[in-house]
Amino acid sequence: MDEIYSINDASFEKQLAYEKIKLLFDNAGLICIGTAITYLAMAALFWTSGSHLLLLLWLASMATVLLAQTWTLHQFRQLTANDPAIHFWARLFALGSGINGIVLGMLPWIVMDASSAFIVISLIVITCGLVSASIGTNSAYPLAFFAFATPAILMLDARLAIEESLIEYAPLLLIYFVAASMASKNFSSLVHESIEKSLQNKALLKELEIKKDEAERANRQKTRFLAAASHDLRQPIHAIDLFADVLEQKLKDGEQQQLLSKMRDSVGSMASLLDSLLDMSKLDAGLVRVERRSFALATLAFNLQEEFSGQANDKHLHFNTAIDTALLERCIIDSDPALLENILRNLLSNAIKYTETGTITLSCQHQNGSYVLSVSDSGIGIAAHEQKKIFDEFYQIDNPERDRSKGIGLGLSIVKRLSHLLEHPFSFTSVAGQGSSFTICVPSGQATDVAAAMPEVRHKLVAHIMVIDDDQTILEGMERMLSTWGCRVLTAQSISESTDLLKNGDFPDLVVADFRLRDDQTGVEAIRAVRNIAGDPKLPGIIITGDTEPARLHEMKVAGFEVLHKPLKAVRLRALIQFALKQRESNP
To answer: Please, what is the Cα angle at 86 between 84 and 90, to 5 degrees?
Structure first.
């Protein structure tokens, strides 16, 4: 907008209407491309489920509508804010959206097979997904949303209603439609208010000659409103999840359950992508506050190792924390712990995503009074001509198919902006086909400012530990975690199994036991049994429990063992193990 209007001027209302319609048409190109790709994919998906002739006619109808909307977009771009024809073209675009919704609503009548759970699930999920997407793309002009969503939902709802086995889904679909309509209304109001505020602030800046920095704050208001709308965008996704819950009760076949699981994974991916977009919106809006302080790197390094070593193992990669123990013991840095962790998490996540074989390394070096943290990988690397683009929003390397498991291309953009916010120098080197290394330079902190430091936690644990739990998944997780800390681990699911394992005389230094075991046995009894066979009445023991019953808690207290409550915090378990072993050394 080049011209500034007075807030009380009638032309202000015209400009406001123009900006809203312009936002609609700004999204139109993306809408047409996305719709064409989606409809072609749907036709391919259901090719064997309906009449080929009808599907081809359906595609032809879609193509005609999209061509008409593309022509409408071209005509609108030739108009100005004062042209009275802008409303005509907006209504014409909404008419095209309505016809588009009718075309989408025709598909269930062509391919529906009530006996096929796959077809039913696909039709519901695809229709609801397209309607949910249109909440954002048509938010500036609600008529376009309702013109599209109403026939699409009602025609699918009618098709479900005439099938006796599917009629129960019809009212649920209507509930979703109501929720989506409310979300659209709320989002539309926020966009209207955002554009209105933006125009008002520009007018005020012109009238009052406010400084440039105040104008920049006003220009960020739109992003603040969009960030606030995150909840409304999540509501339709939640509705899809409700459909999945209903279907889960109906589907018994293994293959059907697998399809449902994939659908849930897709919903989870959508939520994850929305979280990334929300992080970016907060940065755009200036809502991220830096709270720098001195803290020990050790805890952060251990937490990252625990989280990402598991992810690396899942891809058969080696995760290496290449930080000298002596350096880690004295490493005090000055930064915002949460924001620095966000940076390193994004770098490690990217490294794992783009590495198929080899090693992921987290390292630290002391240079010129600062600490240089590095994340290196042996992945695909970055070609020289792409290295200037990797920090652009939504830019991805080697993901032409837009695999959602590789994210949406915001990770490095967030890293760059956070490092700038923290004033931490950031750099990288990469060779295509050989890997990449990203480094961030963090200033040293003051050890006197670090409260309640626990140097023991920063050492490798050299201990033989027995874990007793009747849940195999828990045992595997504990074994993996303790092993990464440097422990030798022995696992058992019962008291009898634990005592059998110790008959060779290889006794542990400490026992970790879940309180509730099989056959009404307890962790207290398990630790006592290990003590008896080891002939060591002072063998350290830790009880892990989810119990809150007073009698149970009293029993554990009287037994004299250390107790940790679920959900378990790894850093607390590590500190308690370190403490128990140190106490044992002091009082053998």
So the answer is: 140
pLDDT 10s digits, 436-459: 899 999 998 887 656 444 444 445
Share of the chain above pLDDT 90, in %: 11
Please check whether residue 382 is in contact with residue 436, taking contact to mean a CB–CB distance below 8 angstroms.
Answer: yes
Residue that is written with structure tokens 């240089």 in the block: 372
Helix axes 254-285, 411-422, angle to 10 degrees: 30
C-beta separation of 352 from 317 below 8 A: yes
Per the DSSP assignment, residues forming a β-bridge with 428 are 438
pLDDT digits (tens, 9 = 90+) for 215-230: 566 555 655 554 444 4
Report helix, strand or coil for 38: helix
Partners of residue 489 on adjacent β-strands? 465
Query: What is the 3-class SS of 414-462, one letter each residue?
Result: HHHHHHHHHCCCEEEEEECCCEEEEEEEEEECCHHHCCCCCHHHHCCCC
Helix/strand/coil percentages in the chain, nearest 5: 60, 10, 25
Distance of CA 483 to the CA centre of its chain: 28
Q: Let me know if 337 is exposed, middle or buried by CB neighbors in 10 A (0-12, 13-18, 19+).
A: middle
* Structural contact between residues 334 and 441, judged by C-beta atoms closer than 8 angstroms: no
User: Which amino acid appears at position 385 of this protein?
Assistant: H
Separation of alpha carbons 390 and 388, rounded Å? 6
Q: Are strands 318-322 and 541-545 parallel, antiparallel or unpaired?
A: unpaired
Q: Output the six-digit token pair for 478.
A: 């504990």
Q: How far apart are CA 338 and CA 454, in angstroms?
A: 20
DSSP letter string, 560-587: T-EEEESSPPHHHHHHHHHHHHHHHHH-
What span, in angstroms and rounded, lies between the C-alpha atoms of 461 and 153? 59
* CA–CA gap between residue 423 and residue 579 (Å, rounded): 37
Contact status, residue 545 vs residue 514, Cβ threshold 8 Å: yes
Q: Please give the order of strands across the beta sheet that includes 370-377.
A: 318-322, 359-367, 370-377, 435-443, 426-431
Please, is 301 exposed, middle or buried when counting C-beta atoms within 10 Å of its C-beta (0-12, 13-18, 19+)?
buried
Q: Say which residues have a Cβ less than 8 Å from residue 414's Cβ, sequence separation at least 6.
A: 276, 279, 280, 283, 342, 346
**CB neighbours of residue 535 within 10 Å:** 8
Q: What is the pLDDT of residues 351-402, one digit of tens each?
A: 888 888 899 999 888 888 899 999 999 988 888 777 777 776 555 665 544 4
Domain architecture of the chain: domains with CATH: 10-285 (no CATH), 293-449 (3.30.565.10), 460-586 (3.40.50.2300)
DSSP element (H, E) containing 320: strand 318-322
Q: Collapsing DSSP states into helix, strand and coil, what is residue 555?
A: helix
Separation of CA 183 from chain center? 21
* Secondary element (H or E) of residue 247: helix 230-250
| pTM, entire model | 0.38
| pLDDT at site 376 | 92
